[in-house]
Design goal:
Elements lengths: L6 H4 L8 H15 L8 H14 L2 H16 L50 H7 L1 H9 L7 H28 L4
């Protein structure tokens, strides 16, 4: 990845720039360095996305500016020549917020058991009760094609259950109506 020492330099903007200026710079550079283009670069685009991910948020930008100002105030520790700088952990930028998965899958296993992804070791029936949206996604992916029949059957029974409850409630309410 491109060294992203100063996020403002990555986006080629002044640290005092307005959010709209930073956004315009990001979009312009993203169009220029997108990996799908002939002159594009995965590393450069990753650095741009990382910089924009931090600088677009008011709170994250304020925290970054504070850390940047503090780094300028404290001098770097003198190291002997030839001794490399200690490796800093690379931040993971993601907009995805995942809920933690239970240690053991809920319910009794039913159907095929997945050996990949975040639900490795879970059966399709357990996934249907915990995360039916994931099953819908899995049915659309190439890796999930082999499970299509089973997934669609599980989702159909899951969709039919509320309709059956409504029909049963309707039948009960008819019994007690005045005529």
């Amino acid at each position: 990845m491109v060294a992203s020492g100063d996020l403002y330099k990555v986006l080629q903007v002044d640290p005092e720039a307005e959010r709209e200026v930073i956004r315009a710079a990001y979009r312009t550079l993203a169009l220029k360095h997108h990996p799908d283009l002939s002159a594009g670069s995965h590393d450069r685009m990753a650095a741009l996305n990382h910089a924009w991910g931090i600088l677009r948020s008011v709170s994250a930008r304020a925290a970054y500016d504070q850390a940047r100002a503090e780094a300028r105030r404290t001098p770097e520790v003198q190291r002997k020549p030839g001794v490399p700088k200690p490796e800093q952990p690379k931040p993971v930028a993601s907009d995805e917020i995942r809920a933690p998965l239970p240690a053991t899958p809920p319910g009794t296993p039913s159907g095929s058991v997945l050996d990949f992804g975040r639900y490795a070791g879970w059966s399709l029936g357990q996934i249907a009760s915990a995360d039916p949206v994931y099953l819908e996604w899995l049915a659309r992916t190439p890796i999930g094609r082999s499970f299509n029949r089973e997934i669609h059957a599980l989702l159909a029974t899951r969709a039919a259950a509320p309709l059956a409850r409504v029909a049963a409630a309707e039948r009960r309410s008819r019994r007690f109506r005045r005529r």
